[in-house]
Amino acid sequence: MAGTPIIVAEDVTKRFGTHQVLTRVSLPVMERDVVCIVGPSGSGKTTLLRCFALLEKPSEGRIVMQDTTISTPEPDRQTRAAARAVRSDIGMVFQHFNLWPHMSVLENLIEAPLRVKRMPRDEAVAVAEKLLAKVDLSDKRDAYPARLSGGQQQRVAIARALAMSPKVLLFDEATSALDPELRREVLMVMRQLAREGMTMLVVTHEMGFARHVGTRTVFMDRGEIVEAAPGAAFFDAPKTERAKRFLQQFE
Ligand code: ADP
Questions:
Q1: Which end of the chain, C or N, has fewer beta carbons within 10 A?
Q2: Mutate which of 20, 47, 56 for ligand 1 pocket (most atoms within 8 A of beta carbon)
Q3: Would you say the ipTM is above 0.90?
Q4: Ligand 1 centroid distance, CA of 23 (Å)
């Protein structure tokens, strides 16, 4: 694994009450990595991603970004300050888009750069317009989310995440809520980002994407990482019975 780790989960265990959903998960994400997390429903994929996104705190273990601890079970002042400092470096794209419905597409894109980064409005608009062109939605600049298809809304959500210039982009089943033909347009945008060298952590049921675009595939089952291998290698030669059984359903 060459390169520099951007963000790392170290020995992360997560419990909700007495229900343990992650058990000592360690996962480094290197610069320009496209790590795809696959596995059966309920295996803890989303919870792990939410720990990386600082939306959940680990019960044990920690999240480290570029050598700085940003999340622990009981963060001290230093860790909380470090988390605040890097929050906008971690972008997240959700299954259900989560656009602000009362804002136009452009307003959705400039909101965080204006408020969080204190970017001048002209500059934020220029960045937003460039990103809308990138996801092929320049003509929807002034539309409201409700008027867009699911695929278009998800492309806006990706552009919105990119507007903060994140160092890593997390995708939580970004295509699961979409019909097959709309999935393709979102996957094409994700593939393009991967080509450009964006560091990505992708929870997905899209085995084609994991195989062909992912640099590494991580297979989770019952809260543990059971296997991790370069994208295609996991699919061509799964090592464990659990992984083989999981892959059978996609044959
Ligand atoms: P996956 O993404 O692999 O489907 P999840 O991370 O969503 O798995 O869920 C793993 C387990 O954690 C499931 O049993 C789920 O019910 C449980 N879980 C997830 N979030 C919560 C929560 N906020 N409170 C209680 N249990 C949760």
A1: C
A2: 47
A3: yes
A4: 13
